[in-house]
Amino acid sequence: MEPSKIVARYCDGRTLKGTTQNFFPNKPVFHVNRLGGTGPGDVVEVKVEDLKAIFFVRDFAGNAKHVERKQLAPGERLQGRLMEVTCRDGEVIVGTTTGYDPKRPGFFLFPIDTSSNNARVFVVAGAVGTARFL
C-alpha cells in the first residue's frame, strides 16, 4: 500500500503532518510517520476519537492564498451527495459523500473544488456540530 500524505487535525487544535499506510475508517487507531522524521521515534499512534478530521493532501505545502470553492459551478455534476459539515470548532467543509452515516466513526468528503489541496477528507463523527445535505 502506497503511503498517503495526511494532515491530522485534533479536536484540541493540534496538527500532525506526515504519511500513513494503515488508516482504515473502521479502525480506532492508525500510525503516522511524522513529516521530516527519520527514525522509529517519529512514528505516532493516533486515536481517531481524538481527531476532528484527516485531510488527505496532494502536498504538504498547500497554498495559503487559495480560497476553496464551496458551491457547484453551473451545470457541474459530481458523484455522491453534496454535503455541508460544520465542525464543533466552526470550520465548514463542503464536499460530496457516498457514505454518510452519523452512527459510524466518521465519513469521507470529497471536495468539489478540484484545485483544492485536499484530495479527500475523513471527518470524525464526534467532531461534527451540524451536517446537512445541500
Give your account of this protein's structure.
- Helix content is 0%, strand content 47%.
- It is built from no helices and ten strands.
- It has strands at residues 4-10, 15-20, 29-34, 43-47, 51-57, 81-87, 92-97, 106-111, 118-124, 128-133.
- It has a ten-stranded antiparallel beta sheet with strand order 4-3-2-1-5-9-8-7-6-10, with no helix packed on it.
- The model has no long low-confidence stretch (mean pLDDT 90).
What attributes does this structure have?
134 residues; ten-stranded antiparallel sheet; 47% strand
Briefly, what is this?
This protein has 134 residues and is an all-beta fold. It has no helices and ten strands. The termini are far apart.
Structural class: mainly beta
Quaternary state, please? single chain
Tally of individual domains: 1
Give me the count of strands.
Answer: 10
- Specify the number of helices: 0
Mean pLDDT: 90
Overall spatial form: globular
The share of residues in extended strands comes to over 45%
Cα(first) to Cα(last) distance is: 34 Å
Main sheet: strand order: 4-3-2-1-5-9-8-7-6-10
Question: Rounded to an integer, what's the Rg over CA atoms?
Answer: 15 Å
One letter per element, helices H and strands E, the order comes to EEEEEEEEEE
Could you estimate the helical fraction of the residues in percent?
under 10%
Which regions are unreliable across 5 or more consecutive residues at pLDDT < 50? none
Task: Note the main sheet.
Answer: 10 strands, antiparallel
